[in-house]
Design goal:
10 helices; 6-stranded mixed beta sheet; globular; 340 residues; alpha/beta
């Protein structure tokens, strides 16, 4: 039985793990450097009450019309299990294309990734940051930060491209010059996300569940997160999510989260005067927020080595949304078939 390592417990990694479990007699391991799964579908919890939630990454899921048939079974699965439901709340400034459908995750967007990881049956190893990959005869020897290594027959990398370039060992010399140029062409935006958690009974009197903020140099999006997801806030209190502009993210990328949070709170008070002080806050730095320039021609994956197989996937090889990650996972599976 082949041992497969999936590096990264974001959406693409979770999908790959689930698809491997459903279709092939393999042993699958998932290593994630963070303390929880989700990647850019992260759902934060209040420090005062872990039942209070706020989506700090993706806010909702859009099924693009061209993928209604190809990806339809995945959406049907998530709808059947209550992981997704149609978006019915008002989002001011949202642009909706003809044929697109929008959905929200009632338990937070991280529940989407957790669903696929649960379906895979894999126990994710958190705090496992891959540092080196060596070729040992017909296997990959994968080292993690802090010491320790394991051997695998197949390795799937789903982390952002800059983290692939940071890997040490044989992998550095196995990437061709052409592949290096293609990988180096990938571009990401960066931003900060601020989650605000309020006490029960707090009222936020605005006529929308979320709003895009045009022509503001600091803030591009505000969501009354529980209202957006259709979650009752009477018992727990509301939660608010603020996304900064990418220009603000780039200008402040090297500053501390505490300093950035103070600036964001000042700007929020101007956009929403009278917003009460929250019980707790959480500020997240998205160094790799969204892919603004993907690998040319969007191939879905990149095979770095054929035997044994070392392959990359994720929205860097497609485009930066739910359909993009789905498409990449499907392309990775097609490339894996001859090796399983």
């Amino acid at each position: 039985m082949a041992r497969v390592l999936v590096v990264g417990a974001g959406l693409t990694g979770g999908l790959c793990a689930a698809l491997l479990r459903r279709g092939y007699p393999v042993s699958v391991a998932v290593w994630e450097q963070a303390r929880d799964s989700g990647g850019r579908m992260t759902t934060a919890r209040s420090a005062r009450d872990p039942r209070g939630q706020a989506d700090l990454g993706a806010q909702y899921v859009t099924r693009a019309a061209p993928f209604t048939q190809r990806h339809g079974s995945f959406y049907d699965e998530l709808l059947l299990h209550g992981i997704l439901k149609p978006l019915t709340s008002h989002i001011e400034g949202m642009v909706v294309k003809e044929g697109d459908c929008n959905f929200v995750a009632p338990q937070g967007t991280s529940s989407i990734v957790k669903h696929f990881l649960k379906e895979s049956g894999v126990q994710v190893s958190y705090g496992h940051c891959v540092t080196e990959i060596y070729l040992r005869e017909d296997k990959w020897e994968v080292h993690k930060e802090g010491g320790g290594s394991e051997q695998f027959d197949i390795v799937i990398l789903t982390m952002p491209v800059p983290q692939i370039f940071q890997l040490q060992g044989d992998v550095k010399n196995l990437i061709s010059e052409n592949q290096k140029q293609q990988l180096a062409s990938v571009r990401y935006s960066c931003r900060f996300a601020l989650g605000l958690f309020y006490k029960a009974g707090t009222r936020i009197d605005v006529p929308w569940a979320a709003r895009y903020i045009p022509n503001n140099p600091y803030i591009c999006f505000i969501s009354i997160d529980n209202r957006k997801r259709g979650a009752d806030a009477e018992e727990l209190g509301p939660s608010v999510v603020v996304h900064t502009t990418t220009s603000f993210g780039l200008e402040n990328l090297e500053k501390s989260n505490e300093d950035v949070q103070d600036v964001i709170l000042q700007q929020v008070s101007r956009v929403l005067p009278g917003l009460p002080m929250p019980l707790s806050t959480t500020c997240h730095r998205w160094t790799y927020s969204q892919v603004t320039q993907a690998i040319p021609n969007c191939p879905g994956q990149m095979t770095l080595h054929h035997n044994p197989l070392l392959i990359c996937g994720g929205d860097s090889f497609t485009w930066s949304n739910f359909d993009g990650c789905l498409e990449s996972a499907l392309c990775v599976m097609e490339a894996l078939k001859p090796h399983l």
